[in-house]
Amino acid sequence: MGTLSDDEVAAVSSPGVGPHPEPWPDDPRLDPDLLRDGDRRNVVDEYRYWRVEAIVADLDRRRPPLHVAIQNWEHDFNIGSIVRTANAFNVAGVHILGRRRWNRRGAMVTDRYLHVSHHESVADFVAWADAAGVSLIGVDNLPGSVPLESAQLPERCCLVFGSEGPGLTSDVVDACAALVAITQHGSTRSMNAGAAAAIAMYHWNLQHPAPPRDGQISR
C-alpha cells in the first residue's frame, strides 16, 4: 500500500462535507472547487468551503501574541504534533530552529494556516525575539526550572521546546528569560514533547484568554 498524501491524510482524519447545493453563495472567501467537490479538510465548520488564504486572513485578525519554537536537530516526529496544537491555539507564529526540513506528518496539514518561520542558528532566533519584543521561555525539566503551574507567563512570549530525548540545548537555555517544567508524579523522567507542548500552550491560554469565537464555549 502506498503512502498517503497530506490531503489524503486530512480527508481520512476529517470526513468533512460534500458538495454545496446550488445555487452557490456569492462570497469571495469561498473556493469554487470545494463548493463543487466537497470540503474534506480538517477545519472547523465555520471555515467549510473557504479558501486557505481567506482562513489565514481571518485567523490573523485574532491571533494572540504567543509564539512557539521547536529545536529540529533530529527530525523529531513530535514537531508535527506540536504544530497541530499550535494551530488549535491559533498562535502568532511557529519557529523551527535548526534544520529547515521537519517532520510534517503529525501536523495533518495544519501548518497551512500558520506562519512558520525558520531560524538556522540560535543567534538568528534570539535576534528575531529581541527585535519582536518577545520573551523566550524554555519548557524543560532542567535544574533551575520553576513549576509551570505556579509560573506567570509573559503575554508576549515564545514557548521553546527541545527535541524528544535530549531536550533543549545549552545555548538555547542560556538565551531564555526563564525555564518552566511540568510537575510529574510518576516514574518517567520526562513526558512526550508533543504532550508537554500542549499542556504549556493551554496553561498560557488560561492566563491570557482570548474572547471566544461565535458558538465556542467561554472559559
Layout of helices and strands:
Elements: H1 6-13, H2 32-37, H3 52-60, E1 66-72, H4 78-88, E2 93-98, E3 116-119, H5 122-132, E4 135-139, E5 146-147, E6 157-161, H6 170-175, E7 178-181, H7 193-207
Parallel strand pairs: 1-2, 1-6, 2-3, 4-6, 4-7, 5-7
Task: Give me some keywords for this one.
219 residues, Alpha/beta knot, 15% strand, 30% helix, 7-stranded parallel sheet, alpha/beta, elongated, single chain, 7 helices
Write a compact overview of the structure shown.
This protein has 219 residues and is α/β, with parallel strands linked by helices. It has 7 helices and 7 strands. It folds into 2 domains: 55 residues, no CATH class; 142 residues, 3-Layer(aba) Sandwich (Alpha/beta knot).
Please characterize this protein's 3D structure.
Keywords: Methyltransferase, Transferase. GO terms for molecular function: RNA binding; RNA methyltransferase activity. This is rRNA methyltransferase. InterPro entries: Alpha/beta_knot_MTases (IPR029028), rRNA_Methyltransferase (IPR051259), SpoU_MeTrfase (IPR001537), tRNA_m1G_MTases_N (IPR029026). It holds the Pfam family SpoU_methylase. With about 220 residues, this protein is α/β, with parallel strands linked by helices. The chain folds into 2 domains: about 5-60, no CATH class; about 65-205, 3-Layer(aba) Sandwich (Alpha/beta knot), CATH 3.40.1280. Helices cover about 30% and strands about 15% of the residues. The protein has helices spanning about 5-15, 30-35, 50-60, 80-90, 120-130, 170-175, 195-205, and strands at about 65-70, 95-100, 115-120, 135-140, 145, 155-160, 180. Strand 1, helix 4 (about 80-90) and strand 2 form a beta-alpha-beta unit. Helix 4 (about 80-90) runs parallel beside helix 7 (about 195-205). The model has no long low-confidence stretch (mean pLDDT about 90).
